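User: What would this chain look like folded?
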Amino acid sequence: MKTHESDRRSRRLPVSATDRKALAAWQPAEPETIAEAVRLKEAALVDFGMESSAIAGWIYSKCAHQVPTTAIETAAVMAAGDGTCLLLFNPDFFVELGLDGVKFVLFHEARHLIQRHLFTEPELREDPVFDIAIECTINHVALTRLRRQSLPVAGGEPTGVDPRKVFARYHADLTAQGLTPFSYEEFIHTDMGCYTELRRMKHPPTPPPICVHELLQELQDELADAETIARIGNEVLANVLLAGKRGVREARSELLDLIARTEGATERLSKLWGDLGAGMIRGQTQRTRRVDWWQRWLVDVLASKLAEGERLVYPKKRGAVLAALGEDPTLSRRGPERHRVVAIAVDASGSMPPPVVDWIASLVGQLDGVEAHWLSFDAAVVPFAPGDPLVGGGGTSFQAVADYLEGRAPSARTGEPFEETLDAVIMVTDGIAPHITPAEPDKWIWLITEHGDDWPESHTPQMACHTVRTGDR
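Assistant: Here's the prediction, encoded as structure tokens.
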């Protein structure tokens, strides 16, 4: 964290921050201390993934390297200089904190990375008062979400900025000036609101020399990889948005809180939330600049349906024999490679514009080894090629699509049955027809046109479902 030069205690790391072996080897803690610190760290990350923080869980999944080291006094998440993120943590510090304290520190680090990423304006980054505002809002959220009454204590001292103590100083300062201070709830509600109120103080606070984390001078000068931080930050927020849209309650609530604390602060930030499709999580239709949220959603969901399994396995018995003979172990293929098969069924009565069908066609065309089968349907199913007109004869039946794809009914045009094994089905429709339960509902992806019925989202079992505005590309 930046402070005035007079009280800066930042220092360079004794070894290169990109040399993971050197970091781990630098005056290492006792083995049992390292083992306990790693256990606490892993337990905290599991808790994030289960219930406490979707954002923190996703951020640490992006940290390819998590290194226990005494080269740093506390903990830090940073760009590693090679396009990845790195978590450094001091084992003695983590063991002293205990599980609840470790959870607080890791939550703080994750939110610090995201919130500093969201505010990239140089004048804010260089203002120590903005650092205090960010620390206040992050720690307030951490105390609330982790159900803590106070900051963790290490070495007999609180590990970070206490938002309630900062508020008390702010309240006393403005009262002494004859000004009307905000209530605590108003003061802490948004990052920029907190910053604005702190700037009203006659004597604004400055960050302490060491906060929960220690952003060292070396990290600022040598590892300021803004591109990596922005990319990972956007990936994390997109994944949390997707989880919220799929009904993960904790992901939705945490994201709504973050949006409320940051939205509208700057034009760039408003556009960023638009780019990520943040309006969807609040039930708002929000146009983006680059790619619409339904497209991002479809890419993510389709990728999950088509994820390749392990095609190579280690034959244990044969491997043991080879090892006994002094030979190197080998891998064997598990079954034949095959194309992954996707069916895209377009409702002839769904008013889906041709550009959307063209975009889906281009998406599928970019996926290696994917064989696409295009179907037009109303009350019957007719194979077609992208670019062909969609001709409907009235009525809509999802069951007709299921019967065809599951091999119970032939094509109305060719009279031939469908004999492929499907990896995914994309249904492009207004959703207005009798509901069905496919034989493999987890493979079905529903794109519902504007003003349609998104029943698959609340169906039992639930199916992947997203509403698409018919004016979208």
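Confidence is low (pLDDT under 50) at residues 1-10, 212-223, 283-291, 309-314. If you want, I can go into more detail on any region.
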